[in-house]
Amino acid sequence: MIKKTILLASAVTLSIVAAAFWLHYADAQTTGTKAGAALVDAARLIAADREPGNWMSYSRTYNEQRFSPLDQINAANAGNLKLAWYYDLDTSRGQEATPLVVDGVMYVSTAWSMVKALDARTGRLLWSYDPQVPREILIKICCDAVNRGVAVWKGKVFVGTLDGRLIALDAASGKPVWSVQTFDKSKPYTITSAPRAINDRVIIGSSGSEYGVRGFISAYDSNTGRLDWRFYTVPGDPSKAFEAPILRKAAKTWHGQWWKAGGGGTVWGAIAYDPQLDFIYFGTANGVEWVQKYRSPGGGDNWFLASILAVKASTGEYAWHYQVVPGDVWDYDTTQDMVLADLTINGRARKVLMHAAKDGFFYVLDRRTGELISAKPFVPVTWAKGIDLKTGRPIENPKARYEKTGKPIDIKPAPFGGHNWQPMAFNPQTRLVYIPAQELDFAFAVDTSYKRSPVSFNIGINLDALPPPTEPAAKKAAWDRLKGYLLAWDPIQQRAAWRAPHPGPWNGGVMTTAGNLVAEGDAAGNFALYRADNGQELWSMPVQTGIVAGPMTYEVDGQQYIAVLAGWGGGYAVTGGELVKKSGNERNISRVLAFKLGGSAKLPPLPVEQAKVLNPPAQTANAATIDRGRRLYGRYCVGCHGFDAVSGGLVPDLRYSGFLASKGWFDIVLAGALKKEGMVSFGQVLNRQKADAIRSYIIQRAIDTKATGESYAGFPAAP
Ligand code: CA
Questions:
Q1: Which value, in Å, is the radius of gyration of the alpha carbons in the chain?
Q2: Which of 117, 177, 229, 665 is the most buried (most CB within 10 A)?
Q3: What stretches in the chain show pLDDT beneath 70?
């Protein structure tokens, strides 16, 4: 009887698929674009499993599983995987995008929001598009000049740019068809996330919750670029009309004048879609500021910060929300990917949404209603003891509310998260979720002299409250605590199935296949395949640069390929400072890499690098000035140049700067001499005396580094 039902269901599905295919080809004939150029539509995307050779959306399918039915490359032959081709990119910032492949053409975005179309068989460039993003936008970016991918729909390729344009390109030529500005450019918004194309709409959010903006998600008409709907994730000024009825209710969870800085809650990551329920799911960031008394004096849950939301795809109307972290003060964005699956839990068939949150808990929700089914920590967590399934609220550790206790505290996970934007994957055959997991901790304390700044972070945190340890054993302990691993997680039992360790945190996104494979690159510069069922490493190749992006797979002319963007970067790389050294390879060589069984391409030899020489000028400042410089550095510079003035590889390491001894220092810091390279003037917030104090601090860091003979301060050499 059960079998019969399944057969019947398959027959119905098949006929829908057949109809969908016919519609697709009929449509292709009427759109007037060149045949074969990204003619993706609802029928094709919803039936994506019928053409597993293509990867037509960010995570292949709307359910964001990052599972491919392809199995030509599998656990039995993975050892014979070789490089098929590579394509060198014209940027050396972090590469976070997942390429798309449609009918033999790869569409990929890179750092600085540029887009390439490549022949997926050979890597030959078909066209290239550069939106010419002004480099000074870097001052509004927390986490590198990255872009996570494009969307395709009916002959167009869509990219969101760092400066907020949503651009539709002709998929055949790469020429712009339309472009819209998605936000007020006077505010510190940016776009780094990948759009999704759903039913003739392009869905996109923004970033900026470390600076001072109001979060939203928008839907644009894919034909014209006209704004169709927008859902704000934070209520606006209550003296004006609310844009949606639910925002009236949300406003009751805020205090003070949060709308002046915008509140935060940007939508910079996950977007999933359930075509049957017609719900779009997305997550929201932390608030502006992290410290709640600065953003909402008097507290409150602050809807919809750090929340999972469902809205109607056709209208943007609110359906439900689940606030993962009420009244967040730990930068626990809930923007990590959301994976939809149908699971049997406690004997009941459930339509679930799965989310491995920055806050360290793995959440399983009923995606029809938002009801919390289960939540368990997947990494060590100290901010909460657990999640109360009755109320859905965390059982907080009272000491973690550093703002209430007035005492600095070291918390796990750090703002880098137990899991960040690097996409996870779900394999319906093993029923396991594969998470790029990590363990970091972070010292939280209120900056009592905090004032909002027109440039740099506005988080309200005193980054100096618990300075890094100086005693050797304590330094080693801090180093040893840093971990990164590929974690296979059973979402039904809520427990780990296996782990594959990496040298440190901030590794690549994940993809899984019907070939019993999991693919992941790491920060140390290796790309590897693991057995999906037990985690055994089957194959690995050094690729000269750290990988943070998620891999994908496709098939052309009967040949399966696995592709990934290589190129170290992202938030941890720019901010993490000396701790980044543990993860491995800080060299950025930005490339698209494509592998196949028996490939014969070879990477070129590594470029010869000039040895960096530390040559600091003599210190002329006193200890008090140096310390003042350290605090100012922590307020204005650390976001790009790294903790303790140690670069994570992407941005010049200031200890080695030739400008430390010259007037050029002030030309750069105060007059914006390197604006075109992204280093804007800080003249709005720093005077000559303050800029000089920062210079004295950097000189001291260089002197100390040279004296200890270590390549970097504080920590033992990376293994
Ligand atoms: Ca954040």
A1: 25
A2: 117
A3: 1-36, 709-719
Amino acid at 642: G
H-helix or E-strand spanning residue 10: helix 2-31
Distance 553 CA to ligand 1 centre (A): 30
Question: And the tokens for 136?
Answer: 């000074």
- Distance, in Å, from the CA atom of 235 to the CA atom of 242, rounded to the nearest integer, reads 7
Ligand 1 centre to CA of 288 (Å) is: 9
- Whole-number Å distance between alpha carbons of 549 and 571: 13
CB within 8 Å of 128: residues ≥ 6 apart: 114, 115, 116, 117, 174
Considering the candidates 163, 170, 328, 331, report the single residue annotated as catalytic.
331
The CA 451 to ligand 1 mean position distance, Å, reads 19
Q: DSSP letter for 608, please.
A: P
Q: Report pLDDT digits (tens) over 412-433.
A: 999 999 999 999 999 999 999 9
**CB within 8 A of 339, min separation 6: which ones?**
59, 63, 64, 65, 66, 272, 353, 354, 355, 424, 425, 426, 433
Q: For residue 228, what pLDDT is reported?
A: 98
Q: Is 49 helix (H, G, I), strand (E, B) or coil?
A: helix
pLDDT, one tens digit per residue, over 345-364 is 999 999 999 999 999 999 99
How far is ligand 1, taken at its centre, from the CA of residue 340, in Å? 24
CA of 264 to the centre of ligand 1 (A): 9
pTM over 0.90: yes
Active site residue 692: no
Strand partners, 181: 165
